[in-house]
Structure formats: C-alpha cells, structure tokens
C-alpha cells in the first residue's frame, strides 16, 4: 500500500512514526509500514567521473589533453535505471500533489538541518543550491511543480540553508514596461517558506542563453528588444561590429533609451516592484538580493560569448566598446587626456576571441597593454564597469534599505591565462588585473561602500586540473580575490563555476570556504546546480557529506571528519524516499 512521508521517515530512521491517520485509529502497535532499515539496499558505488577533456589551440599548435571539469549539466539516461526497486510508497509519491502539512512537519522534526538554528548560525558556512534556470514558466507557474516540492524537501532534510533563483526580467516584465507578473515566483517563495528554506533572489537583468551551462533561452523583455532593434547601439558591440544582446550596453546607463526610461531606472523600478510584492517575506524567507550587472548576472562585459561558437575556452575574448555610446565616452576621455587620437576605438592589435596572449601584439609579454596607451584605455574601460556597478548598487541599497536582506554582486572567475603578465581574458572582461596591478581591490572597495557581499566563482577548481599550457591558476585567483575582500572589509561568498559532483571538488570548496579564504570563512556558498544528476545515489551521498562538512567548518576537515561523515551517512539513509521521489519526478517532468 502507499505510505505517507511520516511512515517512510520513521522506517529509515529505524523508529516507527505514527501518522495522524494511525493515531486517530488508536492502538500502540507500530504500523506494518515500519520496516527494518536492513531491507534498504545501498546503491552501488560508481567510479569517479572522467574529468579529462581535449582543447584545440586557436593558433593551430596542436591539442592539449588535460583534466577539466564537465562544462554543463546533462540529463543522464542512467537516471532512468536509478533504484529500479523503488517501493510502492515512493512510486505513489510521484503523483502531482503536494505532501500534507503533517508530513512536512515530520521532515523538519526528524531530519532537521537548514533554516533557523541550522547551518549559518554556527561555526560553518551555510550552503545554498541554485535552482534550474527554467524554474518559472514564461507566462507564470512553476515548471515540474511536484519535482520542485520533492527536491526542496530533500535539500532541506540534507541541511541545506536555502536556494538561489533567477528572477528573470525577461519573464516578469515581459510584455509591457511597468507591468510585472510574479505568479510563478509567488508559488516558489511560498513553497520555500513552507518547507523552511531561505531564498537568494537574483535580479537577472540579462538574457539566459549563450553562456556556460545555459540550458534554456530567456531573452530580454520584448519591449527592450524592440528598442534594440530600433537602435542596435543599445547592444554591446565588438571590433568587427558583432552585436551582443545578452545585456543592455552600460554606455547608455543614464540615457532615456528604453521607452522614456534609462536602463538604471528600469532596473530600480523592477527591484522596487519586487520589494513591494514580496515585502512580507523579505528578511525572513528572502534573505539576499543578488543584483545582476552584466552577462550571466556578473559584473563584466560579454567578452567571451559561447553562443554560435563565437568564443571557446581558453580564448582571450574581445573588448566590447564599439557601440556609439561607449565610443562617445571613450572619445571624451581621450580629449580630456590630451590624446584625441586614442578616442577612436579599442586597440587594433588585440586579436580576436580565440587568440592566446602571445598571438597578439597588444597582450604579449612586452605588449602595448603595459604602455601609455594601454594604461589609458584599460583604465577607462574598467572604470566604466565600476561606475556601472556603482549606479546599480546605489539603486539597490536605496530600494532594499531596512528590509533585512543582504545585497550581493557576482564577479566572474576568469582563471585562464592568469599566469601570464597581461591577464588578457580578465582585461577584455573589464577587470584591470595584471601582474603589476590588482584589479579586484577597486571592485571590493566599490562593494564595500554599499555594504554588499563579494560573490566569486571557480571556488571548486584546482590548478592541477586545468590545461597547463593555458596558464590557469584558479587557486591563486581565489586567494587574490579573498585578500582584496579582506583589505576592503567586504564579506566574501562563493560559487562553483561548473557542475561538479566529485569529492575532489567538494574537498576544494570546503578547504577554500572554511579554511583558506584569507584566514576567514566565507559568508555563504551557493552550489551549482539542482537537477537530476544531483539526486543520483552516489552524487547525493557525496553532496550530503559535503553539506555536513561545510556546516562543521574547520572541524569538518580536522579531527572530527569521521564523525561528520558518519552523520552524513545517517542523513543519506534518512533522506532516501525524498531523493527517490525527486529523481523520479525530475525525470518524468
């Protein structure tokens, strides 16, 4: 017969749990649903994932074969065969209905973790999990509602503090300016509140599609695209005239180019509408607002777009300063510097998206990047990005003042060619970081002026996993950013840049977030991303152990490691039904 969640939890904990139905029937004998945990079959341990990949140098100098994490999540056909011996109870739970309130209460009482009094209140680092990019449907409502409910309950029971969700400008204000549709987000926020999870809400003013890991396409609002069609210079533009429609060019931040409003006004109005609509949840369920500032929600230029194969790792990218608004600003800066000849565009010898530094005159070892013109141009280019961040943060802090939420900003972890003198990929993205100049301290100070959290990616990566010839140093980059945040007095939070489910990645995150981040623990860590692969048995076992270690902080990687791992193993058994339900529901869509 079908069993409710309370029975299943009691079964897996080794203790019969009397449901409301059984209690009303009377009697002290345990239900026939109480089954010994010995009946549970432990899933077979799978081998470590193959992390090797092959890359081709743009200069035609042959292939590099080295270790690199997978580029994006996938729907593995193996999931269909996961735990084929699902109990009748778990199969019954796949029905598109939400569990009873009593069952959810049982989950919180018997499994604990997350939320108030959980991770984040003690010595460790709270863990959040990114939700799928397409969590909310284009015209309202949740995608895969039953899967979402089961998945959130599983995350809660594993000790996760909360979830991160993109609040897409292109969905909420899709049809007409000033008209906001929050329907799907209402459902999600209420679901998170009821289950006891916190929410990091991302104000996503960018297009979804065209970046690493983008599994769907969500364009900018239709009325914004209409304006960009009428004036193509609202889009970022490279030296070849190629337009990028991921994000409105920061060159027109303060101009009324969007139906009479400036882009900054549009972003502020959107955030204000979000605040007013979800005011009752701010500071309690919704605890953080991450403000999108560019492609992929990151404070940067779209210098390495994957769409249509424009850029491939580890290319240096391209400067995005050729729309008329950016060129107008550059011309004014050159005139002010007394060098009008520098105001006609970016460097002409900086190569293309897939060149390497030494392929170009500008970025090579002794190139123009380190000369008078290079210093002028790179200072202007990076300052424009900083001023863009300043403008949006000023609006965000004004809108969310006294609401009890934190404000955060994400900065990209551009770790390739980091060991070179010029750091070319960082320069094209807008980070004026070279061997002789710290490009992250000005960003940290800008965030510090507004009390914002510095959120940084690539925390899971090790130097030795990367292609050696690409001069990658993610560990060195993370340490530099941590030092900048510490000097500026800014809280540092982290994310993994790519989906990873292996213990090596988890160990690197734990060490960096709890031990090595400049001698201070991170404020939070957000795990990329919830999906079918996370709920595969071995991946789930490793993830639960990872969350427990993050909760324990330094002790989780020290003498208490075995105790933490044993506790994690108990949690894996306890969350079995929820994980099975989530996996099946996600696969059935």
Strand and helix map with partners:
Elements: H1 5-13, H2 20-25, E1 52-56, E2 63-67, H3 88-92, H4 101-111, E3 127-130, H5 145-157, E4 162-168, H6 169-172, H7 183-195, E5 198-204, H8 222-230, E6 235-237, E7 243-248, H9 263-277, E8 286-291, H10 324-336, H11 372-399, E9 406-411, H12 424-429, H13 441-449, E10 453-456, H14 474-488, E11 492-495, H15 503-516, E12 525-527, H16 537-552, H17 561-574, H18 576-588
Parallel strand pairs: 3-4, 3-12, 4-5, 5-8, 8-9, 9-10, 10-11, 11-12
Antiparallel strand pairs: 1-2, 6-7
Helix pairs in contact: 1-4, 5-18, 9-11, 11-13, 13-14, 15-16, 16-17
Tag the structure with descriptive keywords.
589 residues, alpha/beta, two-stranded antiparallel sheet, 18 helices, 36% helix, disordered N terminus, hydrolase, Glyco_hydro_14, Beta-amylase
């Amino acid at each position: 017969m079908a069993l409710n969640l309370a029975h299943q939890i009691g079964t897996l904990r080794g203790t019969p749990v009397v449901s409301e139905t059984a209690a009303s029937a009377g009697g002290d004998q345990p239900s026939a649903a109480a089954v010994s945990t010995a009946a549970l079959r432990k899933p077979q341990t799978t081998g470590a994932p193959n992390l090797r990949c092959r890359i081709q140098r743009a200069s035609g100098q042959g292939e590099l074969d080295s270790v690199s994490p997978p580029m994006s999540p996938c729907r593995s056909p193996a999931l269909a065969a996961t735990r084929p011996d699902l109990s009748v109870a778990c199969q019954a739970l796949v029905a598109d209905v939400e569990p009873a309130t009593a069952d959810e209460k049982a989950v919180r009482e018997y499994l604990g973790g997350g939320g108030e009094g959980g991770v984040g209140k003690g010595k460790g680092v709270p863990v959040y999990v990114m939700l799928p990019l397409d969590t909310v449907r284009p015209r309202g409502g949740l995608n895969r509602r039953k899967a979402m409910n089961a998945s959130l309950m599983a995350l809660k029971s594993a000790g996760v503090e909360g979830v991160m969700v993109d609040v897409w400008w292109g969905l909420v204000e899709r049809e007409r300016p000033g008209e906001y549709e929050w329907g799907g987000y209402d459902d999600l926020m209420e679901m998170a509140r009821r289950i006891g999870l916190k929410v990091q809400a991302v104000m996503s003013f960018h297009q979804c599609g065209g970046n690493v890991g983008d599994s769907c396409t969500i364009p900018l609002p239709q009325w914004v695209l209409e304006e960009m069609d009428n004036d193509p210079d609202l889009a970022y533009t490279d030296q070849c005239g190629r337009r990028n429609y991921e994000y409105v060019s920061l060159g027109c931040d303060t101009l009324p180019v969007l139906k009479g409003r400036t882009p900054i006004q549009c972003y502020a109005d959107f955030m204000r509408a979000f605040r007013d609509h979800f005011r009752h949840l701010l500071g309690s369920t919704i605890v953080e607002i991450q403000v999108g500032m560019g492609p992929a929600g990151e404070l940067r230029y779209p210098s390495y777009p994957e769409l249509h194969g424009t850029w491939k790792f580890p290319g240096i990218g391209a400067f995005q300063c050729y729309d008329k608004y950016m060129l107008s600003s550059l011309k004014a800066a050159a005139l002010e510097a007394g060098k009008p000849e520098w105001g006609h565009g970016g460097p002409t010898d900086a190569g293309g998206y897939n060149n390497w530094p030494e392929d170009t005159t500008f970025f090579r070892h002794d190139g123009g990047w380190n000369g008078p013109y290079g210093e002028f141009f790179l200072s202007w280019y990076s300052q424009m990005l900083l001023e863009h961040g300043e403008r949006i943060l000023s609006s965000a802090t004004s809108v969310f003042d006294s609401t009890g939420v934190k404000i955060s900003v994400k900065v990209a972890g551009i770790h390739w060619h980091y060991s070179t003198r010029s750091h070319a990929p960082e320069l094209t993205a807008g980070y004026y970081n070279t061997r002789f100049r710290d490009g992250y301290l000005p960003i940290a100070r800008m965030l510090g002026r507004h009390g914002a959290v510095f959120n940084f990616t690539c925390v899971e990566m090790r130097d030795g996993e990367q292609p050696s010839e690409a001069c990658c140093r993610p560990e060195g980059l993370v340490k530099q950013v941590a030092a900048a945040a510490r000097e500026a007095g800014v809280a540092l939070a982290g994310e993994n840049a790519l989906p990873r489910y292996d213990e090596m990645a988890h160990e690197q995150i734990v060490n960096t977030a709890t031990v090595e981040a400049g001698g201070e623990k991170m404020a939070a860590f957000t795990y990329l991303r919830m999906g079918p692969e996370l709920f595969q048995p071995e991946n789930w076992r490793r993830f639960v152990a990872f969350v427990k270690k993050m909760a324990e902080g330094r002790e989780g990687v020290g003498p208490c490691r075995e105790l933490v791992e044993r506790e994690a193993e108990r949690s894996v058994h306890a969350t079995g039904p929820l994980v099975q339900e989530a996996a099946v529901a996600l696969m059935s869509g």
